[in-house]
Amino acid sequence: MLVAADLGPAMAGRLVAGVRTRAPRTREEAADALVTTALALMSTRPRELLYSLPREGEGGGPSLLLFYGINGAGKTTTIGKLAHRLKHEGRNPMIVVADTFRAAAIEQMAAWAQLSGVDHFDGRTGADPASVVFDGINAARSRGSDVVLVDTAGRLQTQRNLLEELAKVGRVATKALDGAAYESLLVIDAVLGLTSLVQAREFSRAVPVTGLVLAKLDSSAKGGAVIAIESELGVPVKLAGVGEGIDDLAHFEPQAFIRSLFEA
Ligand SMILES: Nc1nc2c(ncn2[C@@H]2O[C@H](COP(=O)(O)OP(=O)(O)OP(=O)(O)O)[C@@H](O)[C@H]2O)c(=O)[nH]1
Ligand SMILES: [Mg+2]
Question: Can you name the residues that pair with 211 across neighbouring β-strands?
Answer without folding.
Answer: 185
